[in-house]
Amino acid sequence: MSSNAYELTDSYVNSLEKQQMLYKRTLIIVCLSQIFGGAGLAAGITVGALLAQQMLGSDAIAGLPAALLTLGSAGAAFIVGRLSQRYGRRIGLTAGLMTGGLGAIGVVIAAMTNNIILLFASLLIYGAGTSTNLQARYAGTDLANKKQRATAISIAMVSTTFGAVAGPNLVDVMGDLALSIGVPALAGPFILSAAAFISAGLILFIMLRPDPLLIAKMIEVNKQEIKMKDQTVTAGSIENKRGVTVGAAIMVITQIVMVAIMTMTPIHMAHHGHGLSEVGLVIGFHIGSMYLPSLVTGILVDKIGRTAMSIASGVTLLLAGVVAAMAPGDSMISLIIALSLLGLGWNLGLICGTALIVDSTETATRAKAQGTVDVFVALAGASGGAMSGMIVAQSSYTALSLAGGILSLLLIPVVIWSRRSHNR
Fold first, then answer.
1. Does 247 fall in a domain?
2. 143 in any annotated domain
3. Domain count for the chain
4. Distance CA 365, CA 216 (A)
């Protein structure tokens, strides 16, 4: 590092005003990348299952694309977390988003050549973009204080809404564009994904300087040099383990429920005569509900607390499952309400869980721990996606929705256990 770089770093380490300026600047850059990243993740959610169904001719494994996508995102979360820990957020996040863009290109080629093996391999790689886009939410918290963390997460997630809602509603447009250049219509949204992920990666690579995580680590080292007490470190370690466990459990449960119901909704709609534009509209409302309420929910999580909002997440997901189960297959309004509740419940759980993870980790190991937790979240999504197709094939969409709603109630005992342990 040059002497100018050292001086620049020291100026941030020793100035609270500059730290807050960098915190705000980082949030703006993350938000800009999230707009593009949101458009990138929408394709797999909207048409991944339909593309697999078309190429394979079976509903039983229509949930496999979501499983592969989330399995790929698990591996990427692990690698991106470690790259970020060692080299900073800029390198880790850029690598993940660029990889996701390459995966989207592979899906398009697989659809053109009707190559199932290439499709599955590309979906695994494409998953890197979805998990990295989600992991970018942590970058905004690196320089945030405890009362700003959930709000910082929520601001980053709100920006994802713009791309994530636009993506599903561009399904028809991208399908027409794909057909005009000799590509199957269902592969069209993945063309958008490739451009979106690569653009998001370039934004972070070019603009995310100085790196917020590297600055945060230096600030922490500086604090420890000034004042360190062995008792404080020990107490913090115990608190960390419990907080990380609870935060991870909340995110895992919400991810399983959300992915399982969401994955099979396009198939359920197709069986009841709905077209691609209608599927795109329902999924657009769902994704909007996943991200758009974030600004409000983030403030509530910071003000009301992680516990109350975690319980609210479980109750909302239960309502989503019940409405989806009772909704007539030809009722767009009922499906929109069900999927909107599903997105909102996921949003509450993700922000609560993420805030708990940030609260419970130290800067020196934070990115690594965050990446590890996101691996479990992604694997939970993979399980939910894989099982959803089997449950619907053996039973019904109604059974799947009810099972997801009941499973979400596990959030309540998890949070109660956390509070009792904390009180003891």
1. yes
2. yes
3. 1
4. 11
Long-range Cβ pairs for the range 328-336 (8 Å, 24+): 329/268, 329/269, 329/271, 329/272, 329/397, 330/272, 330/273, 330/274, 332/274, 332/278, 332/281, 332/282, 335/265, 335/269, 335/282, 336/281, 336/282, 336/285
Q: How far is Cα 145 from Cα 160, in angstroms, rounded to an integer?
A: 23
| Residue 1 is assigned to a structural domain of this protein | no
> What DSSP state is assigned to residue 258?
H
Give kind and range of the element (H or E) at residue 113: helix 89-113
Output the CA–CA distances (angstroms, integers) from residue 217 to 25, 224, 367, in the order listed: 18, 11, 11
pLDDT in tens, the chain (424 residues): 444 545 556 677 777 888 888 889 999 999 999 889 888 877 666 677 778 778 877 666 666 776 788 788 888 889 999 999 999 999 999 999 999 999 999 999 999 998 988 988 998 899 899 889 888 888 888 888 777 888 888 888 888 777 777 776 777 788 889 899 998 888 888 998 999 999 999 999 999 988 999 888 888 877 776 665 555 444 444 446 788 888 999 999 999 999 899 988 888 888 888 887 888 888 888 888 988 888 789 889 988 888 899 999 999 999 999 999 998 888 899 999 999 999 999 999 999 998 899 888 888 788 888 888 988 888 887 788 778 888 888 888 999 999 999 999 888 888 777 666 555 5
3-state secondary structure 37-77: HHHHHHHHHHHHHHHHHHHHCCCCCCCHHHHHHHHHHHHHH
Q: Does residue 49 sit within a domain?
A: yes
Tokens representing 411 are: 């959030």
CATH number at residue 273: 1.20.1250.20
Residues 122, 55: Cα–Cα separation, whole Å = 14
Question: Rounded to 5 degrees, what are φ and ψ at 42?
Answer: -70, -30
User: Side chain identity at 335, as an amino acid letter?
Assistant: L
Range of the domain at 362: 15-221+230-423
Residue 58: CB atoms within 10 A of its CB come to: 12
Round to whole Å and give the CA distance between 54 and 185.
11
Angle, CA 299 vertex, CA 294 and CA 304 arms, to 5°: 125
User: SS3 of 268, please?
Assistant: helix
